[in-house]
């Protein structure tokens, strides 16, 4: 059996959701924009959504799996003030301090 490569992405934010359709060929993301973001998955990659906020990219080509995961993440990269956005599960976001009110 070939080695399978995985990349898990976590979506953080109120109302942010993902769903996979047509056997993991299409990925729909609700990211607070006025429209749904639709991504077509490359042939060597499969996409699963375990929960509405966890995406799993899997395949036998590590480079393609990680490339697609990076493309998904770039739709809404993690934000440093509230920590909202799409991030890798093992990623740590350093939060910045907001401005202080007097």
Structural account:
It is a single chain. With 102 residues, this protein is mainly beta. 12% of the residues lie in helices and 38% in strands. The chain is built from 1 helix and 7 strands; from the N terminus they run ββββββαβ. It has one helix spanning 62-73, and strands at residues 5-12, 17-21, 26-30, 37-40, 45-51, 54-59, 85-88. The strands form 2 sheets. The protein has a 4-stranded antiparallel sheet with strand order 5-6-1-7. A 3-stranded antiparallel sheet has the order 2-3-4, with no helix packed on it. β5 (45-51) and β6 form a beta hairpin. The relative contact order is 0.25.
Topology (SSEs and partners):
Layout (H helix, E strand, L loop, with lengths): L4 E8 L4 E5 L4 E5 L6 E4 L4 E7 L2 E6 L2 H12 L11 E4 L14
Antiparallel strand pairs: 1-6, 1-7, 2-3, 3-4, 5-6
Keywords: Ribonucleoprotein, Ribosomal protein
Protein name: Large ribosomal subunit protein uL6 alpha-beta domain-containing protein
Family: Belongs to the universal ribosomal protein uL6 family.
């Amino acid at each position: 059996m070939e080695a399978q490569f995985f990349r898990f992405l976590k979506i953080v934010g109120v109302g942010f959701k993902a769903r996979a359709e047509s056997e993991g060929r299409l990925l729909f993301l609700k990211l607070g924009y006025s429209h749904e973001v639709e991504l077509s998955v490359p042939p060597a990659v499969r996409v699963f959504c375990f929960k509405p906020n966890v995406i799993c990219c899997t395949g036998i080509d590590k480079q393609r799996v990680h490339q697609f995961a990076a493309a998904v993440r770039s739709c809404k990269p993690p934000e440093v003030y509230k920590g909202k956005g799409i991030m890798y599960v093992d990623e740590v976001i350093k939060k910045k301090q907001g401005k202080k009110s007097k």
